[in-house]
Amino acid sequence: MLDAIRTACEAMRVLLATRQGAVHASTAAINQLKALSIAAPDDLRTELRRLSRSQQVTRCASLRDRSALSTEHRMTIRALRSTAQRVRHLQAEARELRTSSSSSSTNRHQNPWSYSASVQSRPHPA
């Protein structure tokens, strides 16, 4: 029984650590997207400034470059699109990991996120 509990705790720790990595990477990508939008050409910057963060991610993920635009504008669009798509992927990964860890919780009535800090700080069993 004790081995089953240790195995379940270790499985939860691994999932939570992986999810935390996805959340941190998503935050870094959002910060990069903000920095790129600040440095974007005026018309693009003005368009993005009035949008919420989630709307910016959606808009940037769907941007398309056109050959009539300057090289700087086209490359900025490519960078914004790539970064927004990365944000979307990482957020989806974090949601999936949260769902996986919730469904693998041995106690269905306990919120697995309420004890994540204690599980993550637990030393690895020898």
Kindly describe this structure.
This protein is mainly α. The protein has one domain. Helix content is 74%, strand content 0%. It is built from five helices and no strands. The protein has helices at residues 2-38, 42-49, 53-61, 71-103, 116-121. The protein is rod-shaped and about 65 Å long. Mean pLDDT is 85; it is low at 112-126.
Question: How do the strands and helices of this protein lay out in sequence?
Answer:
Layout: H1 2-38, H2 42-49, H3 53-61, H4 71-103, H5 116-121
Helix pairs in contact: 1-4, 3-4
Question: What is the domain total for the residues?
Answer: 1
Shape: rod-shaped
Percent of residues in β-strands: under 5%
| CA-CA gap between termini | 17 Å
Arithmetic mean pLDDT:
85
The radius of gyration is 20 Å
**Helix fraction by DSSP (H/I, runs of at least 4):** over 70%
The string of secondary-structure elements, in order, is HHHHH
Structural class: mainly alpha
The biggest beta sheet reads:
none
Unreliable stretches (pLDDT < 50, length at least 5) are: 112-126
Helix segment tally: 5
- Number of DSSP strand runs: 0
